[in-house]
Amino acid sequence: MPKVPRKNFYAVRSGREGPKIYASWDECRGVTHGFSGASFKGFYSRREAEQWLGPLVPVPDIPHDVWHPFRPDGPGTSRKARYRNRNPVERSPYARPVKLEPAQSEIPEAFAHSLWDSMLPKAETESDTLVTPANNSTLPVFRSSSPDNLSGQSEDDTPPEPAIELSPEQQEVLDAVKAGRSIFFTGSAGTGKSVLLRAIIKWCRDGDRELAVTASTGIAAVNIGGSTLHSWAGIGLGKETAERLVWKILGSDKYDERREQEKQGKPFAYDDYDPDNHDDPLALLASRYSKRRVVQRWRHVSTLIIDEISMIDGKLFDKLEFIARVLRKNNQPFGGIQLIVSGDFCQLPPVPDHENGAPVPSTFAFDARTWNLCLGNIMCLKKVFRQKEQEFVDMLNAMRFGKLLPETIEAFKKLSRRVTYTDNIEPTDLFSTREEVDNANQWRLHRLKTDVHVYAARDTPGYDRNYNEVKPDVMEKLLDRLVAQKSITLKEGAQVMLIKNLVQGSLVNGTIGKVVKFLTTSEAQQLGIKIGVPDNESSSNKPAIHSWKIGRHFGMHQPQDETTRRERELLSKPGLYPVVWFNQGSIHGGPIEVLCVPNDFEVNTADGRVEARREQVPLILAWALSIHKSQGQTLERVRVDLGSIFEKGQAYVALSRATSMDTLEVRNFDPAKVIAHQRVLEWTRTHTDLI
Ligand SMILES: Nc1ncnc2c1ncn2[C@@H]1O[C@H](COP(=O)(O)OP(=O)(O)OP(=O)(O)O)[C@@H](O)[C@H]1O
C-alpha cells in the first residue's frame, strides 16, 4: 500500500491561542478541542499553512500615527495582557516545562564534575575535558519541508535580493548546512559570502529551525537582519570570565551564595540548578535572579549564525562555547548547537580591548581553544563575483595576504591617475574616520546653491527579547547602527547612495546617483517616474511596504488591507521627495529616475523580531563614505586615499569594494599600509586550501 505523507503543520485560525501554526496534531488539538468556533487545518508544508492562515489574521484598524505598525497589539494594552497574547512558546520557560532532548538531559556525572572543575581557574589549561561528538550524525537534522527556492519571491525578513543562482561552491556550503554540519565558510572579498548567508537564513527560516542570526558588529548584524552576538548571548560586554558570565546569566546572587557554601566545604553539585523545578528552593532562588530569556534562548537554539567572525576575539569564542555547554547541559562542542560562521580573517580584525588605558592585544577566533573542535569543517569560496578582471582579482588577493611583488605595487601606483566621468557622477571617497567623511560630504553639499530639503526620520520603538517596549535611549543606540540617518539634508545636485534594494531588484543597495529634483508622489506618478518601493510583490508602479516581520514572529501576517492602507498613505503624503537619477548599477541597464520615498529600516533581535524601526528616505550623501560602513558594499566608482589608513586589513577592505580597476583611484599608495596581520598569515599557512 502506498505510504500516505504525514501532515506536519497545523494552522489554527481560531483557537485558544489565536491564529498560529503548530508542528503537531496534539498541540493543535490542545488549543481547538472544545473551543467554540475553532477553525484549523493540517498541511504538509509550513508555507501552505502560512498561506492559509495569512490574510485572515485580524489587525486593528487604527490610524498609522497612533498604532505601532509592528506592535502585536494596540496602545493602552496592559503589559500583562500583551504578554498573555503572545506566542506561548516565547513565554518564560517556567510557564511550561522546557523539554531537553534525551541526549541533553542525560549529562554524565563525570561531566558535572569536570564542568565544575573547569569553572575553577586551573581549568584554563584543561581543554581536553571536552567530548568530541563521535560523528556528525549526533547533530540535529533539519526538518524543512520547503523547496529550495532561493530565487523566488521572498517572504522573509532579509532585504529583497535580485534573483541570484548560487554557484556550485556556494551550493555545497548550503548542502552542508542542510546536512546539519557546523561550518565556517570564508573567501576573499566579493566571493558571495553575504549572498550565501542570506540563502542559508532563508532556508533555515522556511523550515522550522530555532535559528539565531548574529554578527560581530551592529552594522554587520543589520545587513543580515539579525542582532549582535553579544546581545543575543546576553553577556553585555563579555569581559568577565566564562564562569562569571554563566553565573551572571543564571543569577549572580546565587553564585555568591554558592561560593560561600563552597568556602565552607559544602560540595557543589551542578545539577542543583533546575529552572524547571519550582519545588526546589534553590531553583526558585536561581530563577528569581537569572536572565530567564537568555537561558531559554541558549537552550532552545538549534542553529547559530555568526557573521563577520574576523572581528570576534578568540577568548570570547571560548567563553561562549563554555556558556553553551553549561546552559544546555550538553557536553558536545558548543553545547551541540549547529554553528554557521562566516567571514574573512584578512578583513577587519577584532577591536582591541583596553586595560588600564593600554591596549590588550586581541586574538582571532581561530585562536580559540575550542575553535577546531567546533568548526572542523572549513569551506572556502574561491570564485570572485564582484570583480571581473582577473588581473585586478590577483592584485587584490596579493594585497589580502600582504604579498605585494614589485609589479603589483607598480600596478597599484598606476591607479593614482584621475578618472573622470561624463555623467557628472563622481567616485565615492572612502575614508577611515567618520569625521573625514562628514567634512567631505558637508563641504560638497554646502557648495551647492540649490534649495535645502531636510528629512527627519520617524523612529518607532519595538520590543526587546523580553517583550518590553524598547526605551527611547536604547532605541536611539540601536538605530545608530543603521546606515539610514536620523536626519539627512539634501539639495538638487547632491550625490547620494541608495541604501536599500528598490523597484523589484532593478536598483541595488550601493548604487550611486544624483538628486535631480523634488516632487510629490502624485506629481511623480503623473510624470511616469518610478516610485522607490522595497517591495518584492508590487508589480505596479506603486509604493508598498514589505511584510512586517513582527507580525510573522507573533504568528500574525501583514494583511492585504494593511498594505494597501500604507500604499494609500504614502501616495497621499503631501511632502516633496527627492527624485534621483541613477546611471550605474541598474541591473536592467540604462539610466533610471526614481522618487525616493521613505522606507522602513529595522534593527532586529537574533530571531528576527523588530526592536526598533526607522522610516527615512533610503539615501545617504555619497561623495564620501567610511571604510567601516563600506564593508559588505559593492561600489562602482571608488577613490581611496591610503594616507589615512591605520588598521590592518582596512586598505584591503577599501580597495576590494571596487568592481573594476577602470573606476578605482588610489591615492598615496604605500605598501607599508597594506600589511596583513601576522597571526592571520601564520594561520592561513596551515590552511593552504584557503588561499
Ligand atoms: N552566485 C552569484 N552569482 C552572481 N553574482 C553573485 C553571486 N554571489 C554573489 N554575487 C554578487 O557578488 C557581489 C559580492 O557579493 P557579496 O557581497 O555577497 O560578497 P562577500 O563575499 O560578502 O563580500 P565582502 O567580503 O566584501 O563583504 C555582489 O554584487 C553579489 O550580488
TrEMBL record:
EC number: 5.6.2.3
Region: Disordered, residue numbers: 69-96, 126-164
Location(s) in or outside the cell: Nucleus; Mitochondrion
Enzyme class name: isomerase
Domain AAA+ ATPase: 179-385
Chain residues that bind ATP: G187, S188, A189, G190, T191, G192, K193, S194
GO MF terms held by the record: 5'-3' DNA helicase activity; ATP binding; DNA binding; hydrolase activity
Any one of the GO BP annotations: DNA repair
CC per GO annotation: mitochondrion; nucleus
Subunit structure, interactors included: Monomer.
Functional note: DNA-dependent ATPase and 5'-3' DNA helicase required for the maintenance of both mitochondrial and nuclear genome stability.
Similarity field: Belongs to the helicase family. PIF1 subfamily.
Name of the protein this chain belongs to: ATP-dependent DNA helicase PIF1
Organism: Phanerochaete sordida
